[in-house]
Amino acid sequence: MAEIKIAGARRTEFGKGASRRTRRDGLVPAVIYGHGENPIHISLPARELGIALKSSNVLLDIDLGDHVELTLPKSIVRHAIKGTLEHVDLIIVRRGERVVVSVPVHTSGEYDRDGILEHNNNSIEVETEATAIPNFLELDMTGLEAGSSLHAADVKLPAGVVLISDPKMVVVHLSVRAAQEEPVAVVAPVEGADVPAEGAAAPTEGAKS
């Protein structure tokens, strides 16, 4: 997993107006909390933070000048339209302690291509050491047949990682593809054959012309 150091500045102004001014300056309002410590209100450079958050479950070493806090992003708020960072909550973690996090699941392997693959859950919750959070977990779909599912319990977990999600939670399901109806053949009239005039009754079998 990634661990990135970012310089943070303590904030002395609070409220919506102060937060807007912070964002206009290219910074993101953030709060550090946890381990019984008083919350620390800070601002972080938006560009550096945005790049760091592209990594799943990244650890952030927040340099506050007098000390560095090892943190894990807990809540990330983005602008509904622009997608820009609005606010971040960071929880303090200690090296060696275990944390519960949501980790993305990547699928691999050949499955029955006649089925339709549905991703019911793209991530699962696990407990792991704070500085050893996997970037992703792998689910092998080799041999998966149409009409079958794979569950959280089927996801391969590295040593030291414990499943927290319900083991029976469906991660992927391979649906049976609906059978296509056979097209009905339409018989065209033979060229030159007599076709009854509109409104006239067709001759019955055995009738003389």
What can you tell me about this protein's structure?
The chain has 2 domains: 3-93, Ribosomal Protein L25, Chain P; 99-176, Ribosomal protein L25, C-terminal domain (RNA Polymerase Alpha Subunit, Chain A, domain 2, Beta Complex), CATH 2.170.120.20. The protein is 8% helix and 42% strand. The protein has 2 helices and 14 strands; from the N terminus they run E-E-H-E-E-H-E-E-E-E-E-E-E-E-E-E. The protein has helices at 16-24, 46-52, and strands at 3-7, 9-10, 27-34, 37-45, 59-63, 68-78, 85-92, 98-108, 115-119, 123-129, 137-140, 149-151, 162-163, 170-176. Strands 1-5-6-7-3-4-2 form a 7-stranded mixed β-sheet. A hairpin with a 2-residue loop joins strand 3 (27-34) and strand 4. It is elongated, with a radius of gyration of 31 Å.
Question: Which key phrases capture this entry?
Answer:
209 residues, mainly beta, Ribosomal Protein L25, Chain P, RNA Polymerase Alpha Subunit, Chain A, domain 2, 2 domains, seven-stranded mixed beta sheet, 2 helices
List the helices and strands and how they pair.
Layout: E1 3-7, E2 9-10, H1 16-24, E3 27-34, E4 37-45, H2 46-52, E5 59-63, E6 68-78, E7 85-92, E8 98-108, E9 115-119, E10 123-129, E11 137-140, E12 149-151, E13 162-163, E14 170-176
Parallel strand pairs: 1-5, 3-7, 8-11
Antiparallel strand pairs: 2-4, 3-4, 5-6, 6-7, 8-10, 9-14, 10-13, 12-14
